[in-house]
Amino acid sequence: MAQLLDLNSIRSVLVRLEDTIIFSLIERAQFSCNARTYQPCAFSNELPGWQGSWLDWILLGTEEFQAKARRYQSPDEYPFSNPSDLPDPVLPPLEYEPVLHEPAVTNVNDKIMQFYTQEIVPSITKPGDDLNYGSTATRDVETLQAVSRRVHYGMFVSESKYRADVDTFNTAIKANDVKTLESLITKPQVEAALLKRLERKARHYGQDESQGGSMHDMKVDPEVVVRMYKDHVIPLTKVVEVEYLLKRI
Amino acid sequence: MAQLLDLNSIRSVLVRLEDTIIFSLIERAQFSCNARTYQPCAFSNELPGWQGSWLDWILLGTEEFQAKARRYQSPDEYPFSNPSDLPDPVLPPLEYEPVLHEPAVTNVNDKIMQFYTQEIVPSITKPGDDLNYGSTATRDVETLQAVSRRVHYGMFVSESKYRADVDTFNTAIKANDVKTLESLITKPQVEAALLKRLERKARHYGQDESQGGSMHDMKVDPEVVVRMYKDHVIPLTKVVEVEYLLKRI
């Protein structure tokens, strides 16, 4: 528990997730936009009775299986599918010491799904349809899960900051003072450093090393990665952090 | 079809898979060795009646689901599980023009599983057990599938080389002359360039860019990646290439 709430340890998880997210985006960018993947009922011939999109179907199948492997027992993992549709784990629960204050669940995966499919996918892929629906959705699931973990990790950040200054936070929470809570958890210097680091990483990992590191054929546009964090990941993390705090006492 | 058998196009798939394989190894290296994951029957309490390892169980669940999404209809995808244990796709088959000569199936996934679990995992991970069995096996599946695709792509390489010089190959095939076939498909200069490129990529992607690119904390040892290709991936690809050719006429 001590380790989970240590800010340095939290930071190293978040920094490591940046790599995972960039790697996943690079993998996704190999395939075309494949918009059909994201349209509800577009596969109703192949999946009779299924009202969601092809991606929703792949997500449910993946999460059903991962739920059996205990994924959603972990306090930093939230499913995209309806939790009541998921089976129980086959592994006995790990003994997690309760770290977060209950009820901790603030699931913003629907918002992640929205910006990812509507804005990020069209920005990193070639337009059109290459029929690789299986590969496409597999890469989407990996990216969505990594982004989801990144955003929901905000609850650990909140808890850690809360414990470091209980009185100040309690005052703001009791007054339902969202503005103050936001300013208490916002560190502009940390955010600026994050965006700089992210740009450097995306540029680094996205280079085509096959040619000895040419800058021409970037596998994913570093600007899109930075914008995704700036416009979505960081603001959504703050939503999670504030909502968590408001329910904290 | 023309594109699938164009050597430049094949080469770009193989070069791209190098990135995927290195990324997957980096992701796997975050977790401990977790040897229990690979031991048959080690999870017999949690999975009553299951004789395989935890990884085998995760592989079967993943492949069952991916089979529904048409993965194993693709001529370059081979399952690790017994194909007769896998369900039919829910998507109609893509109209692949037959590219490979039938019977093309030379599945060496058991050999890939062996070197990966016995040699690669212990070389890239911390020793011991961190209980992250779900995450571990998920990363293993990604790596194994990428390596499998890389190795089995050898059949396309063979077919392409065969078509470029039918008479020479036919003579060697008819004489069951494995030595000559091996020398016909071996390009020492290409292999040397591949290993050099691989080392550069592993060094590049494995740098800890969080610190601005320090060379100290490599996320995966470039030597292990190079050795994996030199001792296993390249020789196994040749096995696949030669076996494919021997069945070609």
UniProtKB/TrEMBL annotation, chains A, B:
It comes from the Eukaryota. Pathway: Metabolic intermediate biosynthesis; prephenate biosynthesis; prephenate from chorismate: step 1/1. GO terms for biological process: chorismate metabolic process; L-phenylalanine biosynthetic process; tyrosine biosynthetic process. GO terms for cellular component: cytoplasm. It catalyses: chorismate = prephenate. Keywords: Amino-acid biosynthesis, Aromatic amino acid biosynthesis, Cytoplasm, Isomerase, Phenylalanine biosynthesis, Tyrosine biosynthesis. Its EC number is 5.4.99.5. It is an enzyme of class 5 (isomerase). GO terms for molecular function: chorismate mutase activity. It is found in: Cytoplasm. Residues 134-241 form the Chorismate mutase domain. The keyword Cytoplasm applies. InterPro entries: Chorismate_II_sf, Chorismate_mutase_AroQ_euk, CM_AroQ_sf_eucaryotic, CM_II_prokaryot. Gene3D superfamilies: Chorismate mutase, AroQ class superfamily, eukaryotic (1.10.590.10). PANTHER family: CHORISMATE MUTASE. This is Chorismate mutase. It comes from Wallemia ichthyophaga (strain EXF-994 / CBS 113033). The lineage of its organism: Eukaryota, Fungi, Dikarya, Basidiomycota, Wallemiomycotina.
